[in-house]
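note to self — DONT lose this again. spent like an hour looking for the file last time. sequence + predicted structure for the chain T wanted, 183 res
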Amino acid sequence: MIFSDTSIKGLYVAHSNRISDHRGEFSRLYCRQALLEKNIKDSLVQINHSNTKKRGAIRGLHFQVPPKLEMKMVRCIQGEVFDVAVDLRVNSPTYLKWHGEKLSAETNNMMIIPEGFAHGFQSLTENVRMLYLHTEYYSAEYEQGLRFDEPAINIQWPLPPSDISERDLTHPYIDSDYRGINL
């Protein structure tokens, strides 16, 4: 695995090398030792999968708050997405800044999203399949979200939104009472 830094400290993109021969391909999707070499400590507890049928659909922006903070590693295993992470760490110099990355089955890359970030994506193709590795169990009680069109963040989605869940449309906008996440 080869790691690329982003403009936000602690947020990485990992690229998995492919080994190909006449039978097909092999690639390593996860390697704890490679993560530890980048000082990324994890203890995976849950792996999720999603299928998004419509091009332009947006899922997110989702996150969990203390005491259920989670690191996510997300990979597109079919199709292509514009994957977004938003820094919600209140003491971070990149607080409320976002980073977007195209993830696809073809590029074989993965976003490594640390605790204290919101996550979402837009499908750039039909029938997108995503694989999520989590360091905390899902907790409805500690899950929160931000609007995909939050003006304080101003994410530049590559396509006009075509499909957004009712739940994601009810996430609040950031107001003067919003305090981010204290780690």
